[in-house]
């Protein structure tokens, strides 16, 4: 008996086959790329597995599965800026008479792009929901576990700590938890929550071109996107090349092949230099227009030599791109677009949720200061260091978070004038995990995973916190901090914050190891009341 093909399948089969051919090479490369890593990871985990409980093992396995799946689907790309794989976009286009990723709107991303999918909120929320019958760790039990670890002399002369049950928001342990210390980069957790609250997880930052009426003045208008890229491969970021493509087409349609190019950075106020000073590899001058965070190499994270005038450099790059597309320009200079200027083209950043996750994972100072200014703009403040600091505080006050003794001087934590408490950091993390604040979830899903990602990739070797602790690090000379979440042996999701400071610099490696040991102790703790 021969079963005939269904009519619907006969019509769809060519498209399905084309889709399979498009993604197969990427999947093969992805599987081969992760095979050896997976073997090494499983071998390493075998040494630790005896110390994990069933709940922690399940959580760790889920995390490893997520990491594997993420690697596979990323390599199976390429991905376009709206979050679709190119093959998926092509398939959708072949099945529909209209639509797809390019609507011809003059934007690199569709105006109503799909809502960004958070990295792992279901895992975090599930852990919180399934622990209703599990007792919270007791204060005395936690004190017995954490006390000796926090007395480690390598932590310096001052140390504060707090542990909170994320499901209830209740503080379970505190050690000078209301004392404000320099937080270093854990400040970024506050910046993340404030930006998500003020501007929204779906907000995108636009970079545009406009033409002044009655003139041939073209203005490149910065919107404050530090991830705008001039590289040939945009990797999901807004592309200066795409903006040049669309601007050149718009000019040619108006019979223009020569313009005077200006650039507008007036969205931001105040000084561009961070108080730490010029020529710092940790951050570029903070301006509304820049490409690739002002980096002078091909890096996308970590320290790097930076441009001293990122806006002017971006304008020069744009002029060269226009020239390659048949549009001649005069030397660019600063200007301000008028309200009468005619819009020509626009590109947009990834959604704020993605920027927040990238900022937290890589401890990205440029994104942090940009998000502080986006928070200021959404809050009606000036987009400056001072305005951003005021706006962050305003947004956290609206969320009814503990702010006594707290001071914000910037959005990145590079400024030593910042002061945060362990109570505030744990309250921020608990608020981000609250069921009634799903818009804040990227403040959790962006946290580095111990032993796997971001600034924790090379830490936690041989410790039970590997794969179970997610935390933001903070480091300045004499200052070391760690704040994040951990699943204990009974499946309870805990938020913790440890801040240390010393007038006499400590050994960074020893201090970080002591902080990691404290977080690992929480992961290894069966401290139910």
Order of strands across the biggest sheet? Answer: 2-1-10-9-8
Specify the biggest β-sheet: 5 strands, antiparallel
Report helical residue fraction. Answer: 25-40%
| Cα-to-Cα separation, first versus last residue | 67 Å
Structural class of the helices, strands and pairings?
A: alpha+beta
Q: Could you tell me the radius of gyration in angstroms?
A: 25 Å
Shape: elongated
Question: How many distinct helices?
Answer: 14
String of helices and strands: HHHHHEEHEEHEHEEHHHHHEEEH
Low-pLDDT runs: 1-25, 27-51, 61-132
Total strand count, please? 10
- Amount of beta strand: 5-15%
- pLDDT average, as an integer? 82
Question: What would you note in describing this structure?
Answer:
With 529 residues, the protein is an alpha+beta fold. Helices cover 39% and strands 13% of the residues. It has 14 helices and ten strands. It has helices at 7-48, 54-75, 86-95, 121-129, 139-150, 187-199, 240-253, 310-324, 352-362, 365-379, 385-398, 422-432, 442-445, 508-523; strands spanning 158-165, 171-175, 206-211, 217-221, 258-264, 328-334, 342-348, 469-476, 479-487, 493-501. Strand 8 (469-476) and strand 9 form a beta hairpin. The termini are far apart.
